Amino acid sequence: MTKKSDPRISWILLGWFLLPVAIAVVVCLLLNSWWLMLIGVTTGLLAASIVLGRRAERAAYSQIEGQPGAAAAVLNTLGKGWFITPAVAVTKNQDIVHRVIGRPGVILVGEGSGNRVTHALRNEKQRESRFVPDVQFTEIVMGREEGQVPIGSLVKHVRKLPKTLSPGQVTEIRRRLEALTNQPLPMPKGPIPKSTRAMRPPRK
């Protein structure tokens, strides 16, 4: 998958591996101590692994970018302490709003056309804030336009939001908002990223 997105990946990884090895060879010749080659090889393998991981992640994002539900697929990688409910709002124009609950409060993430999805986010915030009036709401639009957050930066952006709630408060907010999602909304037509198949509202 990574090579399909980045055909030069093999040469890039080889370069990252050989660079530490070449440095180790020079050091070994100067010090006449060849056991240092082990450090060079180990460092080269580690560097190549890190680069491959980052390139593979970028390739995965490019595979699902633009597909309905892509934001939810990415948000599901946030991990423990975050509660994601995909498609809490879907408009007739196929704009989607996803909800994330965590220590920064309630984060509403929209994907779709700029003005339309902004309107959908505003409506969903008004609807949900009636149930949790004293909670901080953050609205994010995923995309590449000015003021939007690219898919590759979405998780990092959410994690950097200021924490305003305790774990106990997060649980209480989650409990209140679950009343809004008892009836699942239909996802828009079109292919859904495979990684979204496991997206379900968190169990009580």
Principal-axes shape call: elongated
Record field, number of beta strands = 4
Distance between the termini: 36 Å
| Alpha-beta content class | alpha+beta
What fraction strand? 5-15%
Number of helical runs? 7
- Domains (count): 2
For the largest sheet, list the strands in their spatial order: 1-2-3-4
Portion of residues in helices?
40-55%
Which spans of ≥5 residues are poorly predicted at pLDDT below 50? Answer: 194-204
Computed over alpha carbons, the radius of gyration is 22 Å
The helix/strand order is HHHHEEEHEHH
Look at the structure and give the mean pLDDT: 82
The main pleated sheet reads as: 4 strands, mixed
What does this structure look like?
The protein is α+β, with helices and mostly antiparallel strands and 204 residues long. The chain folds into two domains: 2-64; 70-196, no CATH class. The protein has seven helices and four strands, in the order ααααβββαβαα. It has a four-stranded mixed β-sheet with strand order 1-2-3-4. β3, α5 and β4 (137-142) form a beta-alpha-beta unit. α2 (9-31) runs antiparallel to α3 (37-64). The radius of gyration is 22 Å and the shape is elongated. It starts with a helix and ends in a 27-residue tail after the last helix.
